[in-house]
Amino acid sequence: MARSLTECKNCLQQFDSHYPYCPYCGQKSDDQLTLGVLFNNTLSNYFSVDARFFKSFFPLMFKPGYLAKQFVEGRRLLYLHPAQMYLFISIVFFFLFSFISRQQAEIIDNEIKKEIERSHLYQDSVKNRVAIHKDLLAEKDSLVALDDKLKPEDLGEAKTQSSNTPFNINFSETEIDSMITAGASDEAIYKKMGMEADDGFLTKRAYKQALKFLKNKSGGSILHAFYDSVPLAMFILLPIFALILKLFYHKKGRFAHHLVFSFYFFAFLFAILTLIVIGYLIWPNFPIWLMFLMLLSVFFYLFMGVRRFYGQGIGMSFFKTNVISFLFLSIVAPFALVIMGFMAFLFY
Protein backbone atom coordinates (compact mmCIF):
# COMPACT_ATOMS: atom_id res chain seq x y z
CA MET A 1 0.00 0.00 0.00
CA ALA A 2 1.47 3.34 -1.07
CA ARG A 3 2.19 5.88 1.64
CA SER A 4 0.13 9.04 1.60
CA LEU A 5 2.45 12.01 2.01
CA THR A 6 1.76 15.64 2.68
CA GLU A 7 4.02 18.66 2.54
CA CYS A 8 4.45 21.02 5.47
CA LYS A 9 3.57 24.58 4.51
CA ASN A 10 6.11 25.93 6.96
CA CYS A 11 9.32 23.93 6.37
CA LEU A 12 8.31 22.27 3.05
CA GLN A 13 9.29 18.82 4.35
CA GLN A 14 7.18 15.79 3.39
CA PHE A 15 5.75 13.42 6.00
CA ASP A 16 2.95 10.88 6.42
CA SER A 17 -0.41 12.56 6.06
CA HIS A 18 -1.87 10.88 9.14
CA TYR A 19 0.47 12.91 11.36
CA PRO A 20 -1.48 15.84 12.90
CA TYR A 21 1.73 17.87 13.28
CA CYS A 22 4.87 18.17 11.18
CA PRO A 23 7.58 15.99 12.77
CA TYR A 24 10.26 18.43 11.53
CA CYS A 25 9.05 21.85 12.71
CA GLY A 26 5.98 21.08 14.84
CA GLN A 27 3.42 23.11 12.87
CA LYS A 28 -0.09 21.68 12.59
CA SER A 29 -0.47 19.78 9.31
CA ASP A 30 -3.92 21.18 8.49
CA ASP A 31 -3.38 24.70 9.74
CA GLN A 32 -6.22 26.76 8.29
CA LEU A 33 -5.84 30.39 9.23
CA THR A 34 -9.18 31.59 10.58
CA LEU A 35 -10.01 34.38 12.99
CA GLY A 36 -10.55 31.82 15.74
CA VAL A 37 -7.19 30.15 15.09
CA LEU A 38 -5.41 33.51 15.06
CA PHE A 39 -7.09 34.57 18.30
CA ASN A 40 -6.47 31.25 20.06
CA ASN A 41 -2.83 31.09 18.99
CA THR A 42 -2.24 34.62 20.22
CA LEU A 43 -3.77 33.87 23.61
CA SER A 44 -1.99 30.54 23.85
CA ASN A 45 1.43 32.05 23.14
CA TYR A 46 0.79 34.97 25.48
CA PHE A 47 -0.36 32.88 28.44
CA SER A 48 2.35 30.26 27.95
CA VAL A 49 4.92 33.03 28.41
CA ASP A 50 2.95 34.39 31.35
CA ALA A 51 2.81 30.97 33.01
CA ARG A 52 6.57 30.58 32.78
CA PHE A 53 7.07 34.13 33.97
CA PHE A 54 5.07 33.67 37.15
CA LYS A 55 6.72 30.30 37.70
CA SER A 56 10.09 32.05 37.41
CA PHE A 57 9.29 35.23 39.33
CA PHE A 58 9.22 33.74 42.83
CA PRO A 59 12.64 32.03 42.59
CA LEU A 60 14.02 35.15 40.89
CA MET A 61 13.03 37.31 43.85
CA PHE A 62 13.66 34.93 46.75
CA LYS A 63 16.21 32.36 45.56
CA PRO A 64 19.24 34.31 44.27
CA GLY A 65 21.27 32.42 41.69
CA TYR A 66 18.79 29.55 41.48
CA LEU A 67 17.37 30.32 38.02
CA ALA A 68 20.82 30.94 36.53
CA LYS A 69 22.08 27.65 37.95
CA GLN A 70 19.06 25.75 36.62
CA PHE A 71 19.45 27.31 33.17
CA VAL A 72 23.17 26.56 32.92
CA GLU A 73 22.60 22.96 34.04
CA GLY A 74 20.21 22.45 31.12
CA ARG A 75 16.73 23.00 32.60
CA ARG A 76 15.79 25.67 30.07
CA LEU A 77 12.10 25.11 29.34
CA LEU A 78 10.72 25.11 32.87
CA TYR A 79 11.49 28.79 33.45
CA LEU A 80 11.45 31.96 31.42
CA HIS A 81 14.58 32.58 29.35
CA PRO A 82 16.94 35.00 31.17
CA ALA A 83 16.88 37.54 28.34
CA GLN A 84 13.07 37.40 28.20
CA MET A 85 12.86 37.83 31.96
CA TYR A 86 15.15 40.85 31.82
CA LEU A 87 13.32 42.46 28.89
CA PHE A 88 9.87 41.87 30.35
CA ILE A 89 10.65 43.36 33.78
CA SER A 90 12.64 46.26 32.33
CA ILE A 91 9.78 47.16 29.98
CA VAL A 92 7.37 47.17 32.93
CA PHE A 93 9.78 49.38 34.86
CA PHE A 94 10.24 51.94 32.08
CA PHE A 95 6.49 52.03 31.46
CA LEU A 96 5.75 52.83 35.11
CA PHE A 97 8.74 55.16 35.41
CA SER A 98 7.42 57.17 32.46
CA PHE A 99 4.71 58.55 34.76
CA ILE A 100 7.33 59.86 37.18
CA SER A 101 9.56 61.21 34.41
CA ARG A 102 6.55 63.03 32.93
CA GLN A 103 5.88 64.68 36.29
CA GLN A 104 9.52 65.68 36.63
CA ALA A 105 9.54 67.12 33.10
CA GLU A 106 6.43 69.19 33.87
CA ILE A 107 8.01 70.53 37.06
CA ILE A 108 11.17 71.55 35.17
CA ASP A 109 9.18 73.20 32.37
CA ASN A 110 7.04 75.12 34.89
CA GLU A 111 10.13 76.37 36.70
CA ILE A 112 11.65 77.51 33.40
CA LYS A 113 8.44 79.36 32.50
CA LYS A 114 8.43 81.07 35.89
CA GLU A 115 12.06 82.05 35.46
CA ILE A 116 11.33 83.48 32.01
CA GLU A 117 8.40 85.46 33.38
CA ARG A 118 10.54 86.83 36.22
CA SER A 119 13.22 87.75 33.67
CA HIS A 120 10.71 89.61 31.51
CA LEU A 121 9.31 91.45 34.53
CA TYR A 122 12.81 92.46 35.53
CA GLN A 123 13.61 93.76 32.06
CA ASP A 124 10.37 95.73 31.93
CA SER A 125 11.13 97.19 35.35
CA VAL A 126 14.61 98.27 34.29
CA LYS A 127 13.27 99.83 31.08
CA ASN A 128 10.73 101.82 33.08
CA ARG A 129 13.41 103.01 35.48
CA VAL A 130 15.61 104.05 32.55
CA ALA A 131 12.75 105.99 30.94
CA ILE A 132 11.90 107.75 34.19
CA HIS A 133 15.56 108.55 34.80
CA LYS A 134 15.94 110.12 31.35
CA ASP A 135 12.88 112.29 31.91
CA LEU A 136 14.18 113.48 35.23
CA LEU A 137 17.58 114.29 33.76
CA ALA A 138 15.83 116.90 31.65
CA GLU A 139 15.06 118.82 34.81
CA LYS A 140 18.22 120.62 35.85
CA ASP A 141 17.17 121.06 39.43
CA SER A 142 16.95 117.21 39.92
CA LEU A 143 20.39 116.37 38.52
CA VAL A 144 22.27 116.27 41.85
CA ALA A 145 19.60 114.23 43.61
CA LEU A 146 19.51 111.71 40.80
CA ASP A 147 23.27 111.23 40.89
CA ASP A 148 23.00 110.17 44.53
CA LYS A 149 20.10 107.76 44.06
CA LEU A 150 20.70 105.97 40.78
CA LYS A 151 23.53 103.65 39.92
CA PRO A 152 25.60 104.26 36.77
CA GLU A 153 24.61 100.91 35.26
CA ASP A 154 20.94 101.93 35.37
CA LEU A 155 21.66 104.55 32.70
CA GLY A 156 22.14 101.91 30.06
CA GLU A 157 19.63 99.77 28.24
CA ALA A 158 17.77 96.95 29.87
CA LYS A 159 19.94 94.14 31.12
CA THR A 160 20.44 91.37 28.60
CA GLN A 161 20.93 87.80 29.56
CA SER A 162 24.01 86.00 28.37
CA SER A 163 24.15 82.31 27.79
CA ASN A 164 27.48 80.65 28.51
CA THR A 165 27.61 77.02 27.40
CA PRO A 166 30.40 74.47 26.77
CA PHE A 167 32.46 74.46 23.57
CA ASN A 168 33.22 78.23 23.97
CA ILE A 169 29.69 79.27 23.05
CA ASN A 170 28.71 82.71 24.34
CA PHE A 171 25.79 84.76 23.07
CA SER A 172 23.09 87.19 24.16
CA GLU A 173 19.96 85.20 24.92
CA THR A 174 17.77 88.30 24.61
CA GLU A 175 19.02 89.04 21.10
CA ILE A 176 18.51 85.43 20.02
CA ASP A 177 14.98 85.45 21.47
CA SER A 178 14.25 88.59 19.45
CA MET A 179 15.48 86.96 16.25
CA ILE A 180 13.39 83.85 16.93
CA THR A 181 10.31 86.02 17.52
CA ALA A 182 11.01 87.92 14.30
CA GLY A 183 11.15 84.64 12.35
CA ALA A 184 14.82 84.79 11.41
CA SER A 185 16.31 81.75 9.70
CA ASP A 186 18.33 79.25 11.68
CA GLU A 187 21.42 80.07 9.63
CA ALA A 188 21.17 83.75 10.57
CA ILE A 189 20.66 82.87 14.22
CA TYR A 190 23.63 80.49 14.20
CA LYS A 191 25.77 83.24 12.75
CA LYS A 192 24.59 85.64 15.43
CA MET A 193 25.35 83.05 18.10
CA GLY A 194 28.90 82.78 16.77
CA MET A 195 28.90 79.45 14.96
CA GLU A 196 31.61 79.22 12.31
CA ALA A 197 31.60 77.07 9.18
CA ASP A 198 34.79 75.30 10.25
CA ASP A 199 33.54 74.41 13.75
CA GLY A 200 33.69 70.74 14.69
CA PHE A 201 30.74 68.37 14.79
CA LEU A 202 30.26 68.55 18.57
CA THR A 203 30.47 72.35 18.61
CA LYS A 204 27.88 72.65 15.83
CA ARG A 205 25.72 70.15 17.67
CA ALA A 206 25.99 72.28 20.80
CA TYR A 207 24.79 75.35 18.85
CA LYS A 208 21.86 73.39 17.43
CA GLN A 209 20.85 72.03 20.82
CA ALA A 210 21.14 75.50 22.38
CA LEU A 211 18.91 76.98 19.67
CA LYS A 212 16.43 74.14 20.06
CA PHE A 213 16.23 74.84 23.79
CA LEU A 214 15.74 78.57 23.22
CA LYS A 215 12.91 77.86 20.77
CA ASN A 216 11.12 75.30 22.93
CA LYS A 217 12.03 76.61 26.39
CA SER A 218 11.62 73.02 27.56
CA GLY A 219 14.06 71.48 29.99
CA GLY A 220 11.75 68.52 30.37
CA SER A 221 12.61 67.31 26.88
CA ILE A 222 16.29 67.22 27.89
CA LEU A 223 15.36 65.07 30.87
CA HIS A 224 13.33 62.79 28.59
CA ALA A 225 16.29 62.43 26.25
CA PHE A 226 18.47 61.49 29.22
CA TYR A 227 15.99 58.88 30.44
CA ASP A 228 15.54 57.51 26.92
CA SER A 229 19.24 56.69 26.86
CA VAL A 230 18.97 54.48 29.97
CA PRO A 231 18.04 51.27 28.06
CA LEU A 232 21.07 51.69 25.81
CA ALA A 233 23.30 52.27 28.82
CA MET A 234 21.93 49.15 30.51
CA PHE A 235 22.53 47.20 27.31
CA ILE A 236 26.19 48.19 27.61
CA LEU A 237 26.40 47.70 31.38
CA LEU A 238 25.06 44.15 31.42
CA PRO A 239 27.82 42.46 29.37
CA ILE A 240 30.44 44.55 31.21
CA PHE A 241 29.07 43.22 34.49
CA ALA A 242 29.28 39.69 33.07
CA LEU A 243 32.88 40.39 32.06
CA ILE A 244 33.71 41.43 35.63
CA LEU A 245 32.21 38.18 36.86
CA LYS A 246 34.31 36.32 34.31
CA LEU A 247 37.46 37.97 35.69
CA PHE A 248 36.68 36.88 39.25
CA TYR A 249 35.32 33.45 38.34
CA HIS A 250 37.32 32.60 35.23
CA LYS A 251 37.37 28.88 36.11
CA LYS A 252 33.63 28.71 36.74
CA GLY A 253 32.33 28.44 33.21
CA ARG A 254 32.17 30.23 29.92
CA PHE A 255 31.31 33.87 29.40
CA ALA A 256 27.78 32.81 28.40
CA HIS A 257 27.29 31.34 31.88
CA HIS A 258 28.20 34.65 33.52
CA LEU A 259 25.93 36.44 31.07
CA VAL A 260 23.00 34.24 32.13
CA PHE A 261 23.64 35.17 35.78
CA SER A 262 23.85 38.85 34.80
CA PHE A 263 20.53 38.75 32.97
CA TYR A 264 18.76 37.34 36.00
CA PHE A 265 20.57 39.70 38.38
CA PHE A 266 19.64 42.77 36.34
CA ALA A 267 16.08 41.45 36.10
CA PHE A 268 16.00 41.39 39.91
CA LEU A 269 17.46 44.91 40.00
CA PHE A 270 14.72 46.20 37.70
CA ALA A 271 12.13 44.33 39.77
CA ILE A 272 13.27 46.19 42.90
CA LEU A 273 13.26 49.51 41.02
CA THR A 274 9.76 48.71 39.74
CA LEU A 275 8.54 48.11 43.30
CA ILE A 276 10.07 51.43 44.36
CA VAL A 277 8.34 53.23 41.49
CA ILE A 278 5.01 51.58 42.33
CA GLY A 279 5.46 52.60 45.97
CA TYR A 280 6.21 56.19 44.94
CA LEU A 281 3.19 56.34 42.61
CA ILE A 282 0.86 54.98 45.28
CA TRP A 283 2.49 56.80 48.19
CA PRO A 284 4.02 60.18 47.19
CA ASN A 285 5.78 60.41 50.57
CA PHE A 286 7.47 57.06 50.06
CA PRO A 287 9.99 56.75 52.94
CA ILE A 288 13.60 57.29 52.00
CA TRP A 289 14.73 54.70 54.55
CA LEU A 290 12.55 52.05 52.92
CA MET A 291 13.93 52.91 49.50
CA PHE A 292 17.45 52.64 50.92
CA LEU A 293 16.74 49.20 52.40
CA MET A 294 15.29 47.99 49.10
CA LEU A 295 18.37 49.14 47.23
CA LEU A 296 20.63 47.64 49.87
CA SER A 297 18.89 44.30 49.32
CA VAL A 298 20.43 44.27 45.83
CA PHE A 299 23.90 43.89 47.36
CA PHE A 300 22.87 40.99 49.59
CA TYR A 301 21.02 39.43 46.67
CA LEU A 302 24.23 39.56 44.63
CA PHE A 303 26.19 38.05 47.52
CA MET A 304 23.79 35.12 47.96
CA GLY A 305 23.47 34.72 44.21
CA VAL A 306 27.19 34.37 43.48
CA ARG A 307 27.56 32.03 46.46
CA ARG A 308 24.87 29.69 45.14
CA PHE A 309 25.76 29.98 41.45
CA TYR A 310 29.55 29.68 41.77
CA GLY A 311 29.61 27.45 44.85
CA GLN A 312 32.27 29.25 46.89
CA GLY A 313 32.37 29.80 50.64
CA ILE A 314 30.71 32.61 52.53
CA GLY A 315 33.90 34.59 53.21
CA MET A 316 35.27 34.47 49.66
CA SER A 317 31.83 35.17 48.13
CA PHE A 318 31.33 38.17 50.43
CA PHE A 319 34.79 39.53 49.60
CA LYS A 320 34.32 39.14 45.85
CA THR A 321 30.84 40.68 46.03
CA ASN A 322 32.28 43.78 47.70
CA VAL A 323 35.07 44.13 45.13
CA ILE A 324 32.71 43.53 42.19
CA SER A 325 30.23 46.07 43.56
CA PHE A 326 33.00 48.63 44.12
CA LEU A 327 34.38 48.23 40.60
CA PHE A 328 30.94 48.39 39.05
CA LEU A 329 29.71 51.43 41.01
CA SER A 330 32.96 53.43 40.93
CA ILE A 331 34.05 52.81 37.34
CA VAL A 332 31.37 51.21 35.18
CA ALA A 333 28.30 53.10 36.45
CA PRO A 334 29.91 56.58 36.04
CA PHE A 335 30.96 55.53 32.55
CA ALA A 336 27.32 54.67 31.84
CA LEU A 337 26.22 58.10 33.09
CA VAL A 338 28.67 59.73 30.68
CA ILE A 339 27.20 57.66 27.85
CA MET A 340 23.67 58.65 28.87
CA GLY A 341 24.62 62.33 28.99
CA PHE A 342 26.34 62.12 25.61
CA MET A 343 23.36 60.35 24.02
CA ALA A 344 21.00 62.96 25.50
CA PHE A 345 23.25 65.68 24.05
CA LEU A 346 23.17 64.10 20.60
CA PHE A 347 19.49 63.23 20.39
CA TYR A 348 17.77 65.94 22.47
From TrEMBL:
Keyword field contains Transmembrane: yes
Transmembrane regions: 77-100, 230-249, 261-282, 288-306, 326-347
Alphabetically ordered keywords of this record: Membrane, Transmembrane, Transmembrane helix
Coiled coil stretches, renumbered: none
InterPro entries reported for this sequence: DUF3667 (IPR022134)
Signal sequence, renumbered to the chain: none
Domain of life assignment: Bacteria
Protein name: DUF3667 domain-containing protein
